[in-house]
Write a structure and sequence with these properties.
The complex is a heterodimer of chains A (674) and B (582). Chain A has 22 helices and 20 strands. Chain A is an alpha+beta fold. Chain B is of the alpha/beta class and 582 residues long. The longest helix of chain B is centred in the middle third of the chain and has 53 residues. The two termini of chain B are 70 Å apart. Classes of the chains: A alpha+beta (674), B alpha/beta (582).
């Protein structure tokens, strides 16, 4: 469904191209190599064609009898250089056999040549003799021929060696070219990934509230991957195929214009057919994707809801629904099959028609002696090669379209603006003492839907403040604002009397220890989860911290202790253990301010005890600001702030508030029953 | 059963199209051989001047005739074999789903939905590849190679064939070893990619912690490592490919070089004709593809085999709850339920979830069940629905152990509103009529009125035809719950279970729904699991569970008397009510 038609956006193309800029040299080398490779490819049939024309078919030119040469046959020195000769000899082929004519005058030799060009009937052969009026030729056996045609063979050998050289060069060039391009592609992908990852992490939390994790991950992984295909393969193959088609056309035209033009007759038909096929198969492909996704949605929903289906004894109905969906997919698959089953063989047939045309016109040309057999051979070869790159081109264009679609999505993420910006020269405090002040703060996550309304309070360094109130009263938002995860709409938040918008974000956040209700466990071991892979924190510190927050008990009972592997999904840690682990983590980073969202999860009494005790340790000497649920935690706070519907309703110590007979009193009584 | 066991019946069923397909393929391959031969005859005739234009024309006609046969044949075998493989794929898919429907909750608890879905996607795909394209390529490769070699040896020259075959055989041998290395490297590459994905996934999920601890730099450094590793693994695969492809090309070229030199010598010395020389080079080209295809199809077969292995375990799974020889012929239920000293645990290592529950519910009575999370309320109704079997004790309906009641009868006689009030991605009308086949729209609307959701549904743009779920309208929690209630009410079963199904409904609406229930469910049994006192107030009896045991049981007034758990819950909720009205 997400797949929409991508309009060719010039800026996307330009931007994609800009990643190639550092690799201009590599690209040029690649292009040159591609040219060479294409040249080699074109050369190969030509070499064989040459071997045929000049050497295999080379028998029909006469030999001159000379004084001395490297070709000695039956008492005569022979040469293909006829300028000094008076007598000639000649080979004539009739029905796969060669006949040797000796002692020919120039006139006889020419007559023989003309005759053999027209074709000689096999009836003229008697007893291994070819009798043409007054001239008689002897049939040559294999040994005689190999002497007579020594030079032809040397020529073939030369071509064979040349062919081998071309092969080796081609192999090297292809290897080097592929490696250069793939490396370049990989490097570009690497860079884009890094850029994306960096960018995503610089975005404010608000972005993550509105964008599902899965989608962000897809951008960084799969979408970037489809760009790789473009950089490493498609661009160069587009170039290569275009060159190949062009090269083939040029060579064919230069060899024989008429035959070349006849070979091209099928091209428009193939072009139109390919276009129709591509459009059709794209449409069907999309249909299949839709059907697959419908089937998968159905499956995932019904497998998770299998219990319900069984409870309602509705297995039959659901089975029929599934069969319908399954049939839909099957039909779409068969449609695709049909299109392919007709298209592929049809292209084959057309290529054979093209071959037939070449054979016919070429054959006619050979008979008219306007072209040679060798040229015909080259054409037969080329015509088979001609159709491939055209099909490829169509393929590559659709891949390119996909890459563009991905690129657009990637650039949308990269263009996402970070709304929480640091000032150009942020204030860097020597030391954060931990004074927190809210001055008439108004805050809304969205538009005018204020969750905090005109909130003001001051917390002095080292104080413990508890926020209480019903769900949605705005307590958690206050915690989010101190670390500047969101910017407020009105008012001011100050730390040590400096507006947090003027502070360095990293210094601010490093000074605040955030503890969430649900502790996030990173894949790795216990130690990694305490240090967050920060090498500045040594093992000794890890152990001390764990000990101070009572986490060492359970850690030391794990089979691998501090090196026990843990992960978010496969974690065997209980809620309480996770809490303790997060305390150790916070302590290891030694923040001045503690911000805490107390867990409401069910924790057994023993662990509860450990947690309470650990909290005491943590809060010592730190400004603590917490959303508390446990009465025991609240009671010991220096100040209790009661929130109700975004406003501060009551403020004071436990005793003061109890006397007020307000919301706090009621909440307190509720807790008693819990 | 062997690995073939699952697949064999399907293939056997389609043996005729398979055989026809292979036969067509054989014909195509055979006719294919004439093409180079005819081309060769033409070049020969032209070179030897034994052919005039008419002869050329006739040969070309026969060439086109061959091409036509091949074309039609290629269309046909695609339908015969690819079409059949699609048919088998569909049948397997349907049968697998049907099989899943038989399996019990225990199975689904131990098998993740995602994993089960892979059987329907990746595994079926691999299987289809093995019984479709791989059959074609392997058969084609073998037949083609055989025929081409025969033609080359007999029609052209034995020695030349053998000579050119030396490099060609390197492709098959090299291809096999390359295939193994490639698969290994490719798996490593996939793993590196998966690693990277996992890292990104985790990093984005943990965004809050990363920001809080100012760990962005370290995250980036670590990402650099996985990213680099991914690139390295990619390049290893690339290097392999970059070596293999040109090498392949070189080996093929080597055969051509041999053809030029040795074939050329043979042609010069009249041992073969020029035409045969030309045909030979065309035959050579025909050998390249089968050599590569052979390696590919071996891979496909082994992947298909592995896929069958995985699918098989579903087909061979025996459902642990199903009708058996002890099942009695019972057609309807009245609704007298007894739990007799019932205990249940999900397994020896977990301990009892329910312990010694002993309780009678009379037909027409309403029982409310309260308790904290994890106190066994849902488990109790799951047992009644026979999603699991009781570990100890028994459940009786109308005096019969539910294990003896046909599963289908048991479940059609119980209407159930699940805790998550799950609805399917379908129209509201279909969703509500889920429990009753052929329900009329009037009946659906009536049920919705009783569940107080009729008005809401009419407010949707498409009314009862509104599609819910991902692709349609998102319902609020309360709306979902009421739809789920309507669905259960439409079933009008002797027993109704509401599993915490009114929690998101406001108290006024709740009152109205409970009122409607009372009117409609005269003489029918109702079980209500709830947290709110308001929900259970009018029940005939209230059961309070604590850690799987009966804690308190009685009427509302009785329970208020004893000053226990129920009483304190009641008072707490009164206070909360006051607070929210503040």
């Amino acid at each position: 469904m997400e797949e929409k038609e991508i309009q060719y956006n010039g800026s996307v193309f330009k931007r994609l191209f800009s990643y190639l800029r550092p690799y201009v040299r590599e690209m040029i080398v690649s292009l040159l190599l591609v040219l060479a490779i294409t040249g080699f490819e074109l050369l190969r049939p030509i070499l064989i064609g040459n071997a045929i024309d000049v050497y295999i078919e080379g028998y029909n030119t006469p030999y001159g009898v000379v004084e001395k040469s490297d070709l000695y046959f039956e008492g005569n020195y022979l040469s293909k250089d006829l300028s000094e000769s008076k007598t000639f000899t000649q080979l004539v082929m009739v029905k796969d056999s060669y006949y040797y004519f000796e002692d020919l005058t120039q006139e006889e030799s020419e007559r023989l040549y003309a005759q053999s060009q027209k074709g000689i009937d096999v009836n003229y052969v008697t007893n291994d003799m070819l009798v043409l009026d007054d001239l008689i030729g002897r049939k040559m056996n294999q040994e005689q021929l190999s002497v007579l045609r020594k030079n032809d063979f040397m020529g073939i050998l030369k071509i064979g060696i040349l062919y081998l050289i071309v092969l080796v060069l081609n192999m090297i060039a292809t290897f080097v070219q592929t490696m250069i391009l793939q490396k370049t592609g990989q490097k570009i992908i690497f860079t884009i990934r890094e850029e994306l990852f960096h960018h995503v992490h610089s975005l404010p939390l608000r972005y993550f509230d509105t964008h599902p994790v899965g989608r962000i991950v897809t951008r960084i992984t799969n979408d970037v991957e489809s760009l790789h295909e473009m950089y490493a393969n498609i661009l160069i193959r587009l170039f290569r195929n275009s060159i190949k088609i062009l090269g083939l056309a040029v060579v064919m035209l230069s060899m024989d214009v008429k035959l070349a033009l006849y070979s091209f007759i099928m091209l428009p038909i193939i072009g139109v057919l390919t276009y129709v096929f591509k459009t059709l198969s794209r449409k069907i492909h999309r249909k299949i994707r839709t059907k697959i996704s419908a089937l998968n949605t159905f499956l995932s929903e019904n497998i998770s809801g299998m219990r319900l289906i069984q409870i309602f004894a509705n297995e039959d109905m659901k089975y029929h629904e599934f069969m319908d969906k399954s049939l839909d997919l099957y039909r779409a698959n068969i449609q695709q099959l049909t299109v392919f089953a007709i298209f592929r063989p049809m292209i084959y047939f057309l290529s054979q028609v093209a071959l037939a045309i070449v054979l016919y016109t070429g054959g006619k040309g050979v008979l008219d002696t306007t072209i040679t057999i060798g040229i015909l051979y080259v054409f037969i070869n080329y015509i088979a090669n001609f159709f491939e790159p055209i099909q490829d081109l169509a393929e590559q264009f659709s891949t390119l379209q996909n890459a563009f679609a991905s690129a657009e999505k990637i650039f949308t993420v990269l263009d996402e603006k970070n709304t929480i910006l640091e000032k150009a020269n942020p204030t860097i405090l020597d030391e954060i003492k931990g004074k927190i002040e809210f001055r008439n703060v108004w805050f809304a996550y969205e538009n005018d839907d204020y969750v905090l309304k005109d909130v003001s309070f001051v917390i002095h360094p080292g104080e413990k403040v508890a926020f209480v109130g019903a769900t949605g009263a705005g307590k958690s938002s206050i915690l989010n604002l101190i670390g500047r995860y969101y910017d407020i709409q009105k008012g001011q938040i100050l730390i040590d009397d400096v507006d947090i918008q003027d502070l360095s974000i990293s210094q601010l956040r490093a000074a605040i220890g955030q503890m969430q209700q649900d502790v996030f466990i990173f894949t790795g071991d216990i130690e990694n989860n305490i240090t967050l892979s920060n090498e500045m924190i040594d093992e000794e510190t890890v152990k001390t911290c764990a000990h101070m927050v009572n986490a060492d008990h359970f850690i030391e009972q794990l089979p691998n202790q501090y090196h026990e592997t843990v992960s978010e999904r496969g974690s065997s840690l209980s809620a309480g253990q996770r809490q303790l682990l997060s305390f150790a983590r916070t302590l290891a980073f030694d923040p001045k301010i503690l911000v805490m969202d107390e867990a409401t999860a069910n924790i057994d009494t023993e662990t509860e005890h450990l947690i309470q005790d650990a909290l005491e340790t943590l809060m010592k000497g730190r400004t603590t600001i917490m959303v508390a649920h446990r009465l025991s935690t609240i009671q010991h706070a220096d100040n209790i702030i009661v929130m109700h519907k975004g406003r501060i309703r009551e403020m004071g110590t436990h005793q003061e508030l109890l006397q007020k007979e307000g919301i706090y009193k009621k909440l307190y009584e509720l807790q008693l029953y819990a | 059963m062997s690995k073939k066991g699952v697949l064999f019946p399907y293939i056997y069923k389609y043996k005729i199209p398979y055989l026809l397909g292979l036969l067509t393929l054989l014909i195509v391959d055979y006719v294919n051989l004439f093409i180079p031969q005819i081309t060769g005859e033409i070049t020969d005739g032209l070179a030897g001047n034994t052919l005039d234009l008419k002869g050329v024309f006739l040969l070309i006609i026969s060439l086109l005739g061959c091409a036509l046969i091949i074309t039609v044949g290629r269309v046909l075998w695609r339908f015969f074999i690819f079409g059949t493989s699609r048919k088998i794929e569909r049948e397997l898919r349907n049968d697998m789903f049907s099989k899943l429907e038989e399996l019990s909750s225990t199975f689904f608890n131990t098998h993740k939905t995602g994993d089960l879905m892979t059987h329907f996607t990746n595994d079926l795909e691999a299987l289809r590849n093995a019984i479709g394209p791989a059959v074609i390529s392997s058969f084609d490769a073998v037949v083609m190679t055989g025929l081409v070699l025969y033609k080359m040896m007999v029609h052209v020259d034995l020695k030349l064939t053998l000579l050119t075959l030396i490099p060609m055989s390197l492709i098959a041998i090299g291809g096999y070893y390359f295939g193994e290395t490639f698969e290994k490297k490719f798996a490593e590459k996939q793993e590196a990619f998966a690693n990277m994905s996992d890292y990104v996934q985790e990093s984005v999920t943990g965004e809050r912690v990363i920001k809080a601890f100012v760990q962005e730099k370290i995250q980036e450094q670590n990402f650099r490592k996985v990213n680099l590793h991914n690139m390295k693994k990619n390049l290893e695969v690339v290097k392999l490919m970059a070596t293999f492809m040109p090498l392949l090309d070189f080996i093929i070229g080597l055969s051509y070089a041999i053809t030029i030199i040795y074939g050329g010598y043979l042609a010069i010395t009249a041992q073969i004709t020029l035409g045969r020389f030309v045909a030979f080079s065309q035959y050579l080209g025909m050998l390249v593809w089968p050599m590569i295809a052979l390696g590919d199809s071996i891979t496909s077969f082994s992947q298909g085999r592995a896929a069958i292995g995985r699918i098989r375990h579903i087909f061979h799974e025996i459902p642990d709850i199903q009708d058996d020889e002890n099942t009695e012929d019972i057609q309807e239920l009245k609704g007298n339920i007894s739990f007799c000293h019932l205990s249940f645990s999900y397994g020896d290592e977990y301990g009892d979830v329910l312990h010694d529950i002993h309780l009678d519910i009379q037909q027409g009575e309403t029982l409310a069940i309260l308790g904290r999370c994890g106190d066994g309320k849902t488990t109790l109704v799951n047992l009644l629905l026979r999603l699991y079997d009781v570990t100890q004790g028994e459940i009786l309906i109308d005096g019969v152990n539910i294990k003896k009641i046909p599963l289908h009868i048991l479940r059609t006689n119980i209407a159930y509103v699940p805790q998550d009030s799950m609805l399917f991605s379908d129209t509201l009308a279909h969703n509500i009529a889920f429990g009753k086949e052929n329900a009329t729209l009037e009946e659906v609307q009536e049920a919705c009125r009783e569940a107080c959701v009729h008005e809401n549904i009419l407010d949707f743009p498409e009314g009862y035809e509104t599609v819910v779920g991902e692709r349609g309208v998102t319902l609020s929690g309360g709306q979902k719950q009421r739809c789920a209630i309507a669905r259960a009410l439409l079933k009008d079963a002797p027993i109704l279970i509401l599993d915490d199904s009114l929690s998101a409904v406001d108290t006024d609406t709740e009152d109205r729904i409970l009122e409607n229930l009372k009117a409609k469910r005269h003489n029918k049994t109702t079980l209500i699991i709830a947290h709110r006192i308001s929900t259970v107030r009018n029940a005939d009896h209230i059961l309070v569970l604590d850690e799987g045991k009966i804690c308190e049981y009685g009427t509302f007034d009785e329970l208020m008397e004893i000053q226990g758990v129920f009483r304190s819950m009641y008072e707490k909720q009164q206070l909360e009510k006051q607070l929210s009205e503040e």
